[in-house]
Specification:
alpha/beta; Dihydrodipicolinate Reductase, domain 2; Rossmann fold; six-stranded parallel β-sheet; nine-stranded mixed β-sheet
Amino acid sequence: MTFKVGIIGAGIIGGAFTWGFNEFEETEVVAICDLDPWKTNALANEFHIEHTYTDHKEMLKRDDIDIIYIGVPPKHHKSIFLDSIKSGKHVLVEKPIALNYQEGKQMMDAAKNSSCITAIDLIFRYNLAVKKLKELISSDHIGTIRRLQLTFRFPIWPRDWQQVNWLKERIQGGPLREVGSHFFFLLTELFGSVKRLSSLVEYSGPDCYENGVVGTIEMESGLVCTLDLLADVPELQENTLTIHGEKETISFTDWSKLNRLTKDGVWEFFYEDKGNATQEIIREFIQAIRGEDHDLVALKTGVYTQQILDAIISSNGEWVYFNK
């Protein structure tokens, strides 16, 4: 059986998933939807897709669509997600799950009352360098972990390949949501739940994205992670999780690389393999639809990641406690 897919959001990531679904042997994209008809037609023409829409509700009326991928700005996630599961479609939604925790929880609760398969696109679960990192942690290669460190640098925001206006907006854009979400998920994937956090956030202007964040995230295990983000600075772009262990210090950086700190204080590259996360998440999604074992990132995890994100934004230097 070939599962038919509708893509909502004809941006860069929507294009990547259009390619991914068409490459996968059991799925086929049959319709593209975006508010911008030029983007819709451009993506449809690239992949020879006949049916295009500017209204997702019209596309959802199609009985032949089994799966919906949602890759639009976060403020539209909730409404499109709810419309999609109401129409009986399985849904894969981009991160962050929504504008805030409350909207994400509404989506999660609605999914619980539906027979539809749902998941969020948090790709690090399928990243081969992350899997290697997990092995190093579990094998005691790093030794007792003393501290964690998240470092982000952006010489320009939005990034030069991603120049869309909504990423500049405080309500739904900014590097914490667009990039940080992946790393907050990674933090909990590797080290468990958050106990509490405290942070200070600077903004680039009224109603504009954050360009400075410092913070402390304390895990339930007692591990402490420092958070350091700067945007609009003359520095090289960086997205790094550093793990300081008693035996070795290792960093996960550039989305797919592992480096170790030598005794001379020099970073030494030793592993790189991103794999094909798009194909893997599609494979897991189809297995879930078939009722087979799968390893999808559940909406519950997306909501928890959003809770961390919301707490960082709202902390204002005060401790925000979790699970109380």
